[in-house]
Amino acid sequence: MTDQATPAGLAGLSAIVTGGAKGIGLGIARSLAEAGCRLALWDIDGDALEAAAEELRAGGADVSARRVSVTSMEEVQAAAAEFLARNGRIDVLVNNAGIGGDKLVTKMALDFWQRVIQTNLTSQFICCKAVLPAMLEQKFGRIVNLSSRAWLGNRGQASYSASKGGVVSFTRSLALEFARSGITANAIAPGIVETPLFGTLAPEVRQDLQRTVPMQRIGQAEDVANAVRFFASPASGYVTGQVLYVCGGRSLSSASV
Ligand SMILES: NC(=O)c1ccc[n+]([C@@H]2O[C@H](COP(=O)([O-])OP(=O)(O)OC[C@H]3O[C@@H](n4cnc5c(N)ncnc54)[C@H](O)[C@@H]3O)[C@@H](O)[C@H]2O)c1
């Protein structure tokens, strides 16, 4: 049974995708636009942002694009207020923006650690703070947080793993805090996903990575976007605090396949 505050489907929902200018975020934006969502893309890469918004608008989508750093409470609050004024509601927040962080602990400076935690984890707190008042008012909201399979632990990725593990704990706590408010919070943990950066790897490095995936293929942004669509949908209303791996089976074993 659904209550009156629950929208019927994805079409017409107002959705924010952080880091939506490229990579997985753009894949998510394409997918939500195709489903009929009204979109806000927040990113620090102004050129990529404009190109993404133009592409989506050409396909008929209602898109606002804003240069925002998700690490700035001030910028995020202003962007959320603008999106709310434009659409009257904020239904979906996809906390996708993030950066990598490959460094051994012994070689890691404190500011490197802090930048990764700030961009990947604190940003999700900041964006949630900005949209939760609207979601609480509506008695409806869908928060989808990008974690990573790396949250399980990765040698040479302590800051990145810790940030993505923090995302899991944060998501579970959000789920409990808002369980009675019509707001769900879930996390997605992708494995290896093809992004522009991946294309710069040498063919043999790509092949080696591919061999570690039980399905023997590298994930695509669409694979992640399909999972986001489920968590963003009103139909997933009884699912909260979960981590969904989108990794071709890579999370199932500690051994390389
Ligand atoms: N690609 C993978 O294999 C993979 C695997 C697991 C998890 N992830 C996660 O998926 C998400 C997207 O990754 P991606 O591979 O598409 O990365 P990407 O670098 O291709 O895209 C990230 C986007 O976030 C934006 N961004 C970075 N810092 C920002 C900030 N402070 N404010 C606003 N925007 C900012 C960038 O400009 C970029 O457009 C990240 O959270 C990443 O950790 C990726």
UniProtKB/TrEMBL annotation:
SMART domains with a match to the protein in the record: PKS_KR (SM00822)
Q: Which residues form a coiled coil?
A: none
Q: Which domain of life is it from?
A: Bacteria
Question: InterPro entries from the xrefs?
Answer: KR_dom (IPR057326), NAD(P)-bd_dom_sf (IPR036291), Sc_DH/Rdtase_CS (IPR020904), SDR (IPR050259), SDR_fam (IPR002347)
Ketoreductase domain segment(s): 13-191
Q: Which family does it belong to?
A: Belongs to the short-chain dehydrogenases/reductases (SDR) family.
Q: What is this protein called?
A: SDR family NAD(P)-dependent oxidoreductase
**What is the species listed in this Swiss-Prot or TrEMBL entry?**
Cupriavidus basilensis
